[in-house]
Write a structure and sequence with these properties.
heterotrimer, A mainly alpha (226), B mainly alpha (555), C mainly alpha (96), A: 226 residues, mainly alpha, Four Helix Bundle (Hemerythrin (Met), subunit A), two-stranded antiparallel ribbon, 6 helices, 2 strands, elongated, C: 96 residues, flat
Chain lengths: 226, 555, 96
């Protein structure tokens, strides 16, 4: 049983021999969990790739309609949040409590900003008649069915990503609460590290979603709008 | 991973438990069970749950086999309507696969014995272990409610477009239940992988691990990497149903086969999730009851990993008649022959272990021998199915049903029973009555053969699966199969009875009634909560029966 | 504490590279490359991902077992993609 002692007197849980074993097990466990996450998104990548192999041209056309400006800005937002997260883990490691809390808060804030921009983008997609089943005009397209397949995968993939980001923001908030209580320090900061791993993973997924969904074909500068 | 060897053996022993105090009586009250973090108690929570699910799945098939006593070609003939029949076989498949076979060995015997066999005090993440049980229960409740309230008639395979468009049954609630249950599986697998890497006792190198641990490890790899794909495959079906968007709809250019690819990417490796731990148990049983070291430890260990890896390369052999590309079918057919090799290696090695061993015909070994015989037969029919030409003839017939029941029931369930009997004294501190147990094993074996051998013939002659009616000329074989099922049922109810009986009236078992090697036998029966008073230090391989026996003879 | 402390300067450098690569990948999409867009986009994305994984996620500095976990995930993803696409790419090769 972990007793809630001040930071530099943390003791390992009963099944572990020492803190180092506990830390290694927890970190390795986080990486193993991320491997499962690769496969959960991987299933969607596989379905998407299958249809893209068959309908390359229609996927290109549909992709060209997505809002690449927001997509690009969101990428920068998420990358910045990864920086603040990494710096936060560092702050925990060296015992800088205030910096830790600020960096975790910045990470959560940037993640929330991503969600706000995403919502704006989804609304923009709705206004542009790019939502199958809700707002979609088949007459616009030579192959409306195939375009719909692209759009469905776009929403499911970014949707699953958004679900993960929401969970990650929740974890951040939890970490902020604990950090403000002074729970982390050079002796014990593994929860921050593990939360960081999850956060970075959500970022990596987006790094791949950007080219797969937004950058299939050639864009025109005239397309850019917010 | 050599990290564990760097840790000093625990120098300060745990406070020695008071004599007679073990994990069962250390604490009392329902809270001490429902909020436990002890892997042994969690294993028992799972044991109760999966046993319940086994009998629920059995109830469904009882009705099916009663219904199939008659050809039912006239409307209204037979025990149930065609629609009910569809719900019954769907329920049987879903319950037996997801709620019994997948968790049975890993979550009960695995949870109980992985820490004991590697010399650890618990798994790496005890709270996640408990969480996995709660997730399992929640998933089970949702799924069962959905199946019993109105039912689902898609079969456990949920093929599109029937499941995503046409079916008027409770597809989405069942999918939600299964999606949740999948996480239980993943959490268990995660725990085992991390535990095996980081918590082995000093001296317990990878090559000194019992083979059961190797198979649990390989199973966990499969669980971790395959289950997420099933989750998304089912989620896509649910999305298509709920939002009316045609992901697999040919009218949009969608491909129903895409669902099948994603579904079978999990569901084929799933059969290895179900059979690998059973193989691990068989390795433990043949070594103990022939009092010999396993023949070819390295081969058997690597064969487990081989099965895990190769098992992922063959999934589309379930789709030979579905319409995939012919070239893709060729590739999967060839790979399917390949996956039989590591399994065959194991069968050879078990046989070589038994050869010239000092055989003790105790109940666990009887079940292990049953496994070897029936798994081999079932496996050979699997090779037949890998052949494209033959597959086209027997796909979706009773040949397939017989094939997988030989592996799952003749294989996994037999090994599970063997393991349950082998480790029962350790878990409960009681011996079961050997006479009744041997009788049960015999009844199970006879009942099994009578149930499923006729189904091979039925399938080859052309009786389709999932049909509530059949041509009258198939009736004799169907009646044989149903008669066998009734015998099999007796064989399963017997252990339920005498094992429960033994809890109160069984003879007390000592720490090592089988005189087996293995760390789990070096601690009292039942074990104390902390498993070991002092962390063991391992200096030899897991099956050094010759050394153990010499030491015993020497006194 | 046995884990190394990574100097923040490393993180800032990696961050600069990530932003640069993002501008590159978006910018390239305005250049008519035809079929090459996919390959180029995925290559740049892989480099970015590698930077995040190796440096931000400390894969380079941690235990070797972590490499096994991520390697297994990627390898299995490869299996899923390769064998599924084997069907989709060859489905229409042979017409009856």
């Amino acid at each position: 049983m972990r007793r809630k002692l001040p930071v530099d007197r943390a003791i390992p849980a009963h099944q572990f021999d020492d803190l180092e074993q506990q830390r290694e097990a927890a970190t390795f466990g986080a990486w193993v969990f991320l491997a499962t996450e690769i496969l959960i998104f991987g299933a969607l990548f596989a379905g998407y790739s299958a249809y893209r192999a068959w309908y390359t041209h229609d996927f290109e056309l549909a992709s060209g309609k997505l809002n690449i400006l927001i997509g690009g800005i969101n990428t920068i937002v998420l990358l910045t949040s990864s920086l603040t997260m990494a710096l936060g883990v560092h702050a925990a490691h060296v015992g800088r409590q205030r910096a830790l809390v600020w960096l975790l808060a910045s990470t959560a804030a940037l993640g929330t900003l991503f969600m706000v921009f995403k919502a704006v983008e989804y609304y923009d997609d709705y206004r542009k008649q790019l939502v199958p089943g809700l707002a979609f005009d088949p007459a616009e397209w030579s192959e409306p069915g195939r375009v719909q397949l692209f759009l469905i995968f776009y929403y499911v993939m970014t949707g699953l990503h958004a679900v993960h980001l929401t969970i990650a923001i929740g974890i951040m908030v939890w970490m902020i609460v604990l950090a403000r209580k002074g729970r982390f320090g050079p002796d014990y900061y593994n929860p921050v590290e593990v939360s960081g791993l999850y956060w970075h993973f959500v970022d990596v997924i987006w790094i791949f979603l950007l080219p797969l969904l937004y950058l299939i074909g050639t864009h025109s500068i005239l397309d850019l709008h917010f | 991973m050599s990290a564990v060897a760097e840790y000093a053996p625990q120098t300060a022993p745990q406070p020695a438990p008071a004599p007679g105090v073990n994990y069962l009586n250390a604490e009392y009250g329902w809270k001490s069970w429902l909020f436990t973090r002890d892997h042994k108690r969690i294993a028992l929570l799972y044991l109760v749950s999966i046993t319940l699910m086994f009998f629920l799945g059995g109830a469904a098939v009882t009705i099916i086999r009663l219904h199939l006593l008659t050809p039912n070609q006239q409307p209204g003939e037979g025990l149930v309507t065609a629609d009910t029949y569809n719900r019954l076989f769907s329920m049987h498949g879903i319950v037996m696969i997801f709620f019994f076979l997948v968790p049975a060995i890993p979550a009960t015997l695995g949870n109980f014995f992985v820490p004991l066999m590697i010399g650890a005090r618990d798994l790496a993440f005890p709270r996640i272990n408990l969480l996995s049980w709660y997730v399992y229960v929640i998933g089970a409740v949702i799924t069962l409610w959905a199946m019993l309230a109105y039912g689902v008639d898609t079969g456990w395979t949920f093929y599109t477009p029937y499941s995503s468009r046409a079916s008027q049954t409770n597809v989405v609630p069942v999918i939600v239940g299964l999606f949740i249950t999948g996480f239980s599986s993943i959490l268990t697998g995660l725990n085992f992988v991390v535990t095996t890497h980081t918590m082995r006792a000093p001296g317990m190198t990878w090559l000194r691990l019992p083979l059961f641990i190797w198979t649990i490890y390989a199973t966990s790899i499969i669980i971790l990497l395959a289950t997420p794909v099933l989750a998304m495959a089912l989620a896509l079906v649910a999305i298509e149903r709920v939002w009316g968007v045609g992901i697999f709809d040919p009218a949009l250019g969608g491909d129903p086969l895409l669902f099948q690819h994603l579904f079978w990417f999990y569901s084929h490796p799933a059969v290895y999730i179900m059979v690998l731990p059973a193989m691990g148990i068989v390795s433990e049983l043949v070594t103990c009851f022939s009092r010999k070291n396993i023949y070819g430890y390295l081969f058997v260990a690597w064969a487990s990993i081989g099965i895990a890896v190769l098992g992922f390369l063959v999934w589309a052999h379930h789709m030979f008649v579905a319409g995939q590309s012919m070239y893709s079918a060729y590739i999967f057919s060839i790979l399917s022959y390949g996956v039989a090799v590591p399994s065959a290696i194991k069968v050879f090695n078990w046989t070589a272990t038994l050869y010239r061993g000092s055989i003790a015909y105790q109940t666990p070994l009887l079940f292990a021998l049953g496994f070897i015989a029936l798994f081999t037969l079932g496996g050979m029919t699997g090779l037949m199915l890998a052949a494209l030409g033959l597959n086209v003839h027997v796909h979706d017939t009773y040949f397939i049903i017989a094939h997988f029941h030989f592996i799952m029931v003749g294989g996994t369930v037999m090994a599970y029973m063997g393991g349950l009997h082998y480790w029962w004294p350790k878990m409960t501190g009681r011996l079961y009555p050997e006479g009744w147990a041997k009788l049960a094993a015999l009844i199970v074996f006879v009942g099994f053969i009578l149930t499923f051998l006729p189904q091979f013939v039925l399938g080859y002659l052309g009786m389709p699966r999932r049909y509530h009616a059949y041509p009258p000329e198939f009736q004799v074989l169907n009646v044989m199969s149903s008669a066998g099922a009734s015998i099999l049922a007796v064989g399963y109810v017997l252990p339920l009875t005498y094992l429960l009986w033994s809890l109160a009236y069984g003879k007390p078992a000592g720490p090592n009634p089988w005189h087996a090697t293995g760390l789990e036998w070096q601690t009292p029966s039942p074990p104390p909560t902390e498993n070991f008073a002092v962390t063991p230090v391992v200096t030899q391989g897991p099956y050094e029966y010759s050394l153990t026996d010499e030491a015993e003879i020497a006194g | 504490m046995t884990a190394r402390v990574i100097p923040p300067a490393t993180y800032y450098t990696v961050f600069a590279a990530l932003i640069g690569l993002t501008f590159l990948t978006v910018g390239i999409s305005f250049v008519p490359l035809g079929e090459m867009h996919t390959a180029v986009g995925l290559t740049i994305a892989s480099i970015k991902a590698l930077l995040v994984i190796l440096f931000f996620m400390h894969l380079l500095y941690g235990s070797k077992a972590n490499w096994l976990a991520i390697g297994a995930g990627l390898f299995w993803l490869g299996i899923l993609l390769a064998l599924t696409l084997a069907d989709y790419f060859t489905r229409h090769w042979w017409t009856y």
